[in-house]
Design brief:
93 residues, alpha+beta, Ubiquitin-like (UB roll), five-stranded mixed sheet, 17% helix
Length: 93
């Protein structure tokens, strides 16, 4: 099944500047693996060495954080979109 992934600006150099890409997968994990297959370099930016999602990376299925909706093994349905959202920190106290 084809799923659209929204790619944040800091990672678009990996997709040749594309903000949205189509990948295959029936789970979030499969879709992100397909993203890495099509655009190498994502895995090291998204995942810890043990395969878990990095703490500062959020992934949303539609408008729902996957960490509260089945994690990387959350099923994807036709029409679902994924968004990669890096956490932002800093600023003035």
């Amino acid at each position: 099944m084809s799923t659209k992934i929204r790619v944040p600006s800091p990672l678009r150099q990996l997709t040749g500047g594309q903000s949205d890409v189509q990948v295959e997968g029936s789970t979030v994990r499969e879709a992100l693996a397909s993203l890495e297959d099509s655009f190498p370099g994502f895995a090291t930016r998204l995942f810890e060495p043990d395969g878990s999602l990095r703490h500062f990376v959020n992934v949303y299925r539609n408008d729902e954080d996957i960490r509260t909706a089945g994690g990387l093994d959350a099923a994807l349905s036709p029409g679902d979109d994924l968004s990669i959202v890096p956490a932002v920190a800093g600023g003035r106290p």
